[in-house]
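Q: Got a minute? One more chain.
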Amino acid sequence: MGRYQLRAAGTSTAGTGPVDALERLPGNDAAGPAPLRRPGRGIWGEPISWLQAGRRLLPSEVDTVGRLGHHRALAFSSRRGFAAQGFWFTMADYQEEDLQKFLKNVDEITNLIQEMNSDDPVIREKAVLETEKRLQFTEEDQEEDECRTTVDKTMISPPQAPTKNTDEINTEAFLASMEKDAKERAKRRRENKVLADALKEKGNEAFVKGDYETAILCYSEGLEKLKDMKVLYTNRAQAYIKLGDYRKALVDCEWALKCDEKCTKAYFHMGKAHLALKNYSVSRECYQKILEINPQLQTQVKGYLNQVDLREKADLQEKEAQEALDSGTNTAVTTKNLLEILSKPDQIPSFYAGGIEILTDMMKDCTERTLFRTHNGFSIISENEVIRRCFSTAGKDAVEETVCMSVLRLWQAVCSENEENQRLLVLRPDTGQLLPSLLASRVPNIRQQTLALLLQLAQTENGRSLIMGHLDLTGLLEALVSFLDFSDKKANSAMGLLTDLALEERFQVWFQASLPDVLLALTGVLKRDPKVTNTSALCQCIAIMGNLSAEAATRRQMSASEEFRDACLALMAKCEEDVDLFREVMYTLLGLMMNLCLQSPFVSEVWAMEVSRKCLSLLNSQDGGILTAGGQTASRYAVKILAICTNSYHEAREELIRLDKKLGVLMQLLGSEDEILVGNATLCLGNCVEVPHVASSLLTTDIVPVLLKLAGGDAQKTAVQLNAGIALGKLCTAEPRCTARQGAQLLLWRKPPHPQGTGESSGCSRRGNTVMGQGSFWAPTAVVFSLFHSRSLLQPLLFLPLLPLPLTPSPLLSVSFLSPLLFQKQTSPASFFFFFSAWDLSVWENVP
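A: Always. Here it is, folded:
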């Protein structure tokens, strides 16, 4: 035990003041207890033998507590003001009875000490006697315990005594109880999940309506049902952001991240809240965290980070502008004064027009543009009733037109190189409908100024995003295509703006969803007279439609409209009246029509026949215009559309034969180095030879050796070889004299080595012609089929090693399967055609 000084209540060590504590004195615990210091003179008049007895009593009681093993601070230090610094005891086996006994002893000792300090000698004497009795009893108890209990005073936490559990636990009952509890918990969770989902949906409905307070209440009730539902936290955070309570939004985001540390929505709303609180660096960190979790969101994160940069830039601009205003800069003070003057209501229109013109002249620097924003310039102009009346009037007089022109020029000035001003302008509630309506105004000058403002906004990615996110795109598109009425550069500028928007993914998504609303306007473009329309602007507009029709859903809607298809044909007919003047329009229109033909179920026979005629005419042009102007892609599409139409419509084949009886255009294309072009040309050729008398007209041509070379290996793509072999087979089947005239070449033909080898057979499509690219089924098999009708060649053909007839790709191609047909006396060409026509696939599916 360490050294302690027992100071009576009401006395200090020096005898100068009251204390009530056990005071630890410096010293070495190993040296044993030090003698008690004698109190100051005059404190107690009696002998201190009772104090010595108390001194022996207290350590004994403490030692008893230690033996009991209670891991607890000296209890009387908290119960009656005792301060025994440094005493902690280990309670190995907590027992309530021992604890109560100990506390009772402490109370009794405390009372004895207080009685010793009493002014009444009788009470003091009685307390001393009682102390001696307790001390004697304690010593006797110690002697009994020494034989069975030892105390290791050097250990802070002695090991716990081993305990014996007398209750035998029923393992099966315990597991059953646990299982039952788990099922009950799971059931309650499912019930709460249903309730929480219902409250979430209710909150979402309120959020959509703009009732954010109700939404927050619903989300909060849902969280009472299910506290770990992260979507409720993120939804409530979003509602808090709408109400401007960004701190609460951050708290909800933190809770959502506790539910799911990879919750990207939580980081998004957290970044948004920090951005509103101008914690720009923290906001960036939140957005960067989204990118770490999901790298596929790089585009979205880039936009978020761009917003942070713009807001931080705007904040810096506002600080600099305020400094300029505080320093009394002339232009800054003038800007502020002009805005105060313009804020006066109910003035004549010319008053506002003049003030706005002066203010526009002041917007030369970023400081003045920023002051316009910070001093509510947009609200002063947009909410002025006189100015609003001037904008809303359909037939404007000179003064109203002047006011509108002044405001549009002011907006151009304040938005120049100032993204934050652009954002505030577009986010105005009335701007979304106002700008498209002004763009379609009857007053040309207003239309021109509005177009200039929109072109200014569309120069940056952020500006284009603002246009697509907040303006009426249907009205905007209709207004832009109406600029085709202008013959000057305004039409080109309008189409340039439309092109910039059409390249954005958000615009394409909107266009596909809103096509029924704007299809009439696009059809009107095709119905225009090219003679009175800006040719370059018309080409650009049609090119936009062609690019947008590359999407299958958009193309499907366009091709399903008979009025739209007829407008395409009508415009093509008008252009043919002066090919030299409207050649560019024809080529652009051809690209659109090619895309539409891909939706063959929606294309009529008349349409297919007419488009085939147009394509053949363009491919047959003497100047090679489609090859030079449209390039390789245009040539591919022209042949591709011929292959589609002739494959689906017999009328298209007949129209093609009528225009080119000996198929000279297709024959010429067979010599092209572009194998996709060649493959589609052979497909189209094979379709055309099915028309009666066409094969006979080709007897004097060299089509057989050309097709034989392509099928034999001159073509690198297997699909081209297949189409060439199939076309050759159809030709020989339709006209037997082709075999008689070219028989020697057919029999002596040897397939040159090919790196692809024999391989396996390609698959078959529903159309029955070869798909470019896959498999290596040898086309010479089709040549063998084409010769089956000539019995004089059959037996030599089967034994000639020069013909690489594959035996494995399919039972259709095995000799054992073909042999019964080969030696029948009455085998018709149709019998053999049946076998190879099943292998017809379609090249055009793979052509871009």
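A: Confidence is low (pLDDT under 50) at residues 1-48, 57-94, 747-848.
Q: Perfect, thanks.
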